């Protein structure tokens, strides 16, 4: 029997250019931002790092339909792993990035084996519990993590042995954008593969996919580990760029913010993760500078508008406008 996911509608074979379009778009947009905002590179770098984190969450929520509120677990493990490697072994940024990816993947594998046997509210609660346990562990293990004070004084060596991280943040920005472009390319290849098609089938109807012989649980664990590795990379980048890791990397609010960013942009679309992150971070930055106590009201109001008017996120806005224009014409 043919897999219905593959037979419902004929698809044009993806080309190499279609895989590269998101990465090229990010590089072009980042180049313009680099030229227009040369003195805000630190803030732009934080946006890029958060984009990597949200893209990793889109893999599990948007592609496989796995809703968790504990994605910060992998991000935090990647941040601590990169910080510890830099302090005690080597300041090489690429090594820290690799270790962060491994730490995030291992954490995702260990927790995913349990989490992904559940669903619904049970999955949400257990995922929150995992991050709370990790946060408390990091707080108590002062000999390793620095406790509530965190890891400070993290230094990063020259990138590729050639490019020193400058005070303005140019190298850090270019470094982060390069990693984001590579992550987007990896995700595009993954989504366009038979594995990605199976994930969309699982998101649509896990029981149907199970009935035709698809190993649903194994597919979910696999994508969870891949997303965990990408989240670990984001955490490692944050540790290297800021030079500090604290227990707040395991905060529940971080996982909640990531979900809000993805909902704003549109789950299931890589562009949605990028657009939602950019909008959230910019609105947060501007609103918090105007009113540090009530900036959440702006985010909440914006989220309500998007959910009711554009339930598929802001990336659905061009299509919605095009349909309205066709009706009026």
Automatic annotation (TrEMBL):
This is Branched-chain amino acid ABC transporter permease. GO terms for molecular function: branched-chain amino acid transmembrane transporter activity. PANTHER family: ABC TRANSPORTER ATP-BINDING PROTEIN (PTHR30482:SF17), HIGH-AFFINITY BRANCHED-CHAIN AMINO ACID TRANSPORT SYSTEM PERMEASE (PTHR30482). It is found in: Cell membrane. It is a multi-pass membrane protein. CDD domains: TM_PBP1_LivM_like. The keyword Membrane applies. One of its GO terms (cellular component) is plasma membrane. It comes from Rhizobium leguminosarum.
């Amino acid at each position: 029997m043919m897999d219905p996911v593959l037979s419902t509608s004929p698809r044009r074979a993806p080309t190499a250019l279609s895989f590269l379009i998101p990465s090229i778009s990010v590089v072009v947009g980042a180049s313009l931002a680099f030229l227009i905002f040369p003195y805000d590179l630190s803030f732009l770098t934080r946006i890029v790092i958060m984009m990597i984190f949200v893209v990793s969450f889109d893999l599990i929520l948007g592609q496989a339909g796995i809703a968790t509120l504990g994605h910060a677990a992998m991000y935090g493990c990647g941040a601590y792993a990169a910080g510890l490697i830099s302090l005690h072994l080597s300041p090489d940024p690429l090594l820290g990035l690799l270790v962060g990816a491994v730490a995030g993947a291992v954490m995702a594998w260990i927790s995913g084996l349990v989490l992904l046997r559940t669903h619904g509210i049970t999955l949400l609660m257990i995922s929150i519990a995992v991050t709370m346990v990790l946060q408390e562990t990091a707080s108590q293990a002062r000999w390793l993590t620095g406790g509530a004070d965190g890891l400070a004084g993290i230094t990063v060596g020259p990138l590729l042995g050639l490019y020193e991280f400058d005070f303005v943040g140019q190298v850090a920005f270019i470094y982060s954008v390069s990693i984001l472009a590579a992550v987007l390319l990896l995700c595009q290849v993954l989504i366009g593969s038979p594995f990605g098609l199976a994930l969309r089938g699982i998101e649509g109807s896990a029981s149907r996919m199970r009935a035709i012989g698809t190993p649903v649980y194994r597919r979910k664990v696999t994508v969870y580990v891949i997303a965990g590795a990408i989240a670990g990379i984001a955490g490692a980048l944050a540790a290297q760029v800021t030079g500090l890791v604290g227990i707040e990397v395991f905060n529940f609010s971080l996982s909640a913010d990531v979900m809000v960013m993805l909902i704003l942009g549109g789950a299931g679309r890589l562009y949605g993760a990028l657009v939602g992150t950019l909008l959230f971070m910019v609105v947060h930055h501007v609103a918090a500078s105007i009113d540090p106590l009530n900036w959440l009201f702006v985010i909440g109001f914006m989220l309500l508008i998007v959910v009711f008017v554009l339930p598929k996120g802001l990336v659905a806005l061009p299509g919605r406008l095009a349909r309205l224009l066709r009706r009026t014409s």
